[in-house]
Amino acid sequence: HREWLQALANVRPVTSDGQSIELKANISSLKELDLALKNGASGVGLFRTEFIYMDRTMLPTEEEQFDVYRKAAERLQDKSLIIRTFDIGGDKSVGYIQFPEEDNPSLGYRAIRISLAQTDMFKTQLKAILRASHYGSVRIMYPMISSLDEVRKANHVLEQAKKELRENNQPFQENIEVGIMIEVPAAVIIADQLAEEVQFFSIGTNDLIQYVLAVDRMNETIAHLYDPYHPAIIRLLKMTVDSAKRQGIQVSVCGELAGDVLAIPLWLDLGIEELSMSVQSLLPFKNRLLHTERAASQGIIEQALLCKTSLEIRNLLERSRIKH
Ligand code: PEP
Ligand code: MG
C-alpha cells in the first residue's frame, strides 16, 4: 500500500473532473523538506522556524538562520517557500528568552508579540529570510496577528531590515511578498481590512479552533470539544475566504484541517487553490482528491452554513463524496 501511495508523488493533484489544488507541505526542518519533496509537495506553505530556536542555549545568529533558509530555498528551486517568523511561546518556550510567569501561555507572550517587543531578535530573523530570498521563491508570514497595528509594526521592522541589507550591498528580493496567519478570531473579523495590507492569508485552523471554541488544543480532558466541524468554524472559513477574494489576495489553509480528507468538498467549494499540510498527509490526501468530483461539492458551503451541529456538517461532507 505504501509503495502504491508513493507512486502518486508525481501525479498532479486534481479532482476526477479536472479541478487542481496545489498541495504544499508544512515543515520544521530541512530533513522534513526532503520528505515533503519526496511526497510530491509543490512547495512549502509553512516553514515553522521556531524549531531553529529550540533545543539550544542561545539565540541562533543571522548567519545560522540564513544558512538554513537558503538551503531550503535552493532545494525548492522555483517552488514557493513561505517562511513563518518565529512562533515561540505558548507551548514552545526557549530557555534563553525571559518568559513571564503566565496563567494562560497561549493567550500570552508569544509569536508576533515577542517579535514586536524584542525587535532586534525579530530583525535578525527577517534579515536572514530576506537574504535567502535571493536564492529562491521566498515569502514571509507573520503568526498570531490580531490587529492591523501589528502588521504595520512588523512591516516597519521589515523595512529597517531591508535598509540595513541595502547599506551592506547584500542582495534580496526587493518586493518580497508578506502574508499573515489567520488564526486568531479577531483577524477573521477584520479580515477585510487586513487583506488591504498583505499579499496573502494562510488560515491556521489549529489555533483558530482553539481560540474560537475556547478549547485548549493540548488539553486531553476536553479534546472532544476541539471540533474542526463546529458550525462556527465553517462560518469563519467562509468569512476569511470572502474577504481575501474581495481584495484579490491569495488564501490558503495550513492547519491540520487542511489535510483532512473529509474537508476536501469544503476546500473545493470555497475555491481554495492551495493547501499546506503535514508531509504524512500529502499522499493520502492526494489519493482521495483524485477520486473526488469537484461538481459534487458545488453548493456544499451554503448547505454547511445552514447546518446546526457538527454531526450534520460531517454527514453532509460524507454524503457529498462520490461513491465507489
Ligand atoms: C495553526 O495554528 O493552525 C498553525 C498551522 O500553526 P501552529 O500549528 O504552528 O500553531
Ligand atoms: Mg498557530
Automatic annotation (TrEMBL):
Active-site residues, as the UniProt record annotates them: C254
Residues binding phosphoenolpyruvate, per UniProt: R48, R84, N206, D207, R217
Top-level taxonomic group: Bacteria
Keywords recorded for this protein, A-Z: Cytoplasm, Kinase, Magnesium, Metal-binding, Phosphotransferase system, Pyruvate, Sugar transport, Transferase, Transport
Cofactor requirements of the protein: Mg(2+)
Enzyme Commission code: 2.7.3.9
One annotated GO biological process: phosphoenolpyruvate-dependent sugar phosphotransferase system
Catalytic activity: L-histidyl-[protein] + phosphoenolpyruvate = N(pros)-phospho-L-histidyl-[protein] + pyruvate
Places the protein is found: Cytoplasm
Molecular function (Gene Ontology), one example: phosphoenolpyruvate-protein phosphotransferase activity
Chain residues that bind Mg(2+): E183, D207
Main location: cytoplasm
Domain PEP-utilising enzyme C-terminal: 7-292
One Gene Ontology cellular component annotation held by this UniProt entry: cytoplasm
Annotated function: General (non sugar-specific) component of the phosphoenolpyruvate-dependent sugar phosphotransferase system (sugar PTS). This major carbohydrate active-transport system catalyzes the phosphorylation of incoming sugar substrates concomitantly with their translocation across the cell membrane. Enzyme I transfers the phosphoryl group from phosphoenolpyruvate (PEP) to the phosphoryl carrier protein (HPr).
Family: Belongs to the PEP-utilizing enzyme family.
Name of the featured protein: Phosphoenolpyruvate-protein phosphotransferase
Organism annotation: Paenibacillus psychroresistens
